[in-house]
Amino acid sequence: MEKVQWKVEGMTCSNCALTIHKFLERKGMKDVKVNTIGGDVSFEMDDVHTKEELATGIKDLGYKVAGEKELTRDKKTILSTPIERFWVCFPFTAILMLHMIPGVHIDWLRDPWIQLGLSLPVYIIGMSFFGRSAVKSLRNGMPNMDVLIAMGATAAFVYSLYGTLTGQAERYMFYETAAAILTLVFFGNYLEDASIRSTQRALNSLASSQKVMANMIAYDDDHHEHLFPVENTQLKVGDLILIKTGEQVPMDCKILWGDVHVNEAIVTGESAPVHKHAKDKLIGGSLIQDGTVKAQVTAVGNDTVLSGIINLVKQAQGDKPPVQQLADKISAIFVPVVIGIAVITLAVNWIIIKDFTPALMRGIAVLVIACPCAMGLATPAAIAVGLGRGAKTGILFRNATSLERFKDIKQVVFDKTGTLTTGKFVIGNWSGRTPLEQLAVGSRQSAIGGQQSAEDTHHSPPDSHQDATHDSRLNFPSAVDRVSPKALAVAQDLPQAQHDDFKRLVYSLEKYSNHPVAKAITNAWKAKDEFKWSKIEEVKGLGMKAMDKEGNEYWAGSYKLAEEFTEDDKHSLYVLKNEQLLGWMDVTDEVRPEAKQVINYLHSKNIKTILLSGDRAAKCEQLAQELGIDEVIAEHSPEQKLKKIAELNSIAPIAMVGDGINDAPALAKASVGVSMSEASQIAIQTAQVVLIGNGLKNLPAALGLGKHTYLTIKQNLFWAFFYNIIAIPVAAFGFLTPTFGALVMGLSDVVLGVNSVRLFVKKVV
After folding, report:
1. What whole-number distance in Å separates Cα of residue 676 and Cα of residue 482?
2. 569 given a catalytic annotation
3. From 415, 456, 501, 615, active-site residue
């Protein structure tokens, strides 16, 4: 299925989003997400319908697919924004309201025909928007707030027109009420749009970083280099560019020449410059602080890291967390309920006060003061700010539900390698013999009468490619066997090149693994003439298994492979051939500097910490003691980790923190999966939350942001319900006029926007 992402204009409340959502689902679209705040609509399209058909259907609902001119063929119309409509209506309404100012007496303004002439343009403009929207929403079966506004304004206007036409203007003249309702609601819509747009501030800041000028390198026929300034949107994959100090990286690229210090705060939130040189990748939108490089563009458009982040955030904003479901249900029936209350208000007041005019004004006040939008926007506004702030600081939430789930987290489970440690391994001591060496020793021993195998005591002097000393003392069971002097001499006379074969063998096995230890080995012992395998696979929890053309079986992995052959379990990697131990390696890893601080923070919040690893128990216990982790669960395979996460999850909600790839199943099983990743790897992450580029540093911020976003949602929902519960009875009992009710209604949504925007500056840690 094709993934479609549109920007839809004209959505004013949650009912609008529900209308579009239901339309697309009726058409058979899958994974439909509609974001009321930003107008973003995404879905998976089937092969039955076309984009043109769907865009036309959305247009018939009263909305417009923006940026799809070939689909909608609409031209920009005048009075297309709330502020434009407000300024056109304001002069007419202001004149109508003059005679209501104490001490101001303008006789000609009391003429009903003049008031009709002044209010008619306002009413026409108002109905061209509110009336049309109301009719379409009723036709779609999802009445929105515009139904209430249109009914209230029409009731006041028609009532006044009746008095004018029947010569009873003194008793029925409320033209200024109709005009004021429409004008003030336009103004309220403008304030609402402005406050809601501010919730997108962080995301817009990311988007604005996508358009810059670039210095493209081109060569003439004489191979002379020339620079051409072009907009980065014109760049293509493979283009060469020059980036200098103070310039923004125009697109994702790879450095070919030069080195720079680059500020990647645009995606990591960390302003400390990172040193990069040839073959390193630069992220589009980051800033060169010092240095000059020539680079080759590796990704453009929606394939860049920054675009990927923006699109993921937009999709997450379209999610509906459980807390929003109740508000959506109430919003769906809110308008019919308010209309019923308004009719009851009119009837009861008419009966009690025996005067139709004030009873009608109270009914109109009920219509215009009610605000279903407040309930619909309470959650999206807070989520937009929470997701935006997260993206700006290097925390990527893949869905809105994970924000809400953070409030319940009582346990945090950490993987060890690459999570609590840096994952940047350095080779320490190692010792081994090669298959060739083993074969040579065996054949010579046979020739001298079947002597027992010689102790393997080869020493490889350190060289420029070796990170640490090669320990010549192999603690194999055979090392204590008796050997003949002649056999020992044969072994000692083996060429030095055969000793290097051990490194070549290990490299040939580990190059097919994604484990951090394997990557460290392949980087340090890279070899050209590698072993050729007929079959090779990675066995989770054990290591790499390979078979050569002769049928020999090789293993490189954990102590579980070698426990039958040696009691020495302190090494990181063991190498076997045909169930015979060839050697071992030690690799060292350092603890992340921020790990201790993060653990202490979690303890301060009464959150239990657990280390869950496949590593040896002794190493895990040592690390846990150093960091102060509460519980250690060691020597677990990926399948066992998965079962353990399910078991822990049944006790209390947990967050699992891992590297995002090797721990993918466990991350998916946890209440909230949190992975750590370089920005260029975001696309392959499956966790709900991704910490970009700064290790564990942002974990407390992610937890705090989730909790405070949920708190803001609760505050917004409380305001939305409280406002309507108080405002509607106040209007029904005649304590405010329809004009004042329209103003208050417009400002009610602004309160939600302002409260949500507080998340940008609120302390969350």
Report:
1. 52
2. no
3. 415
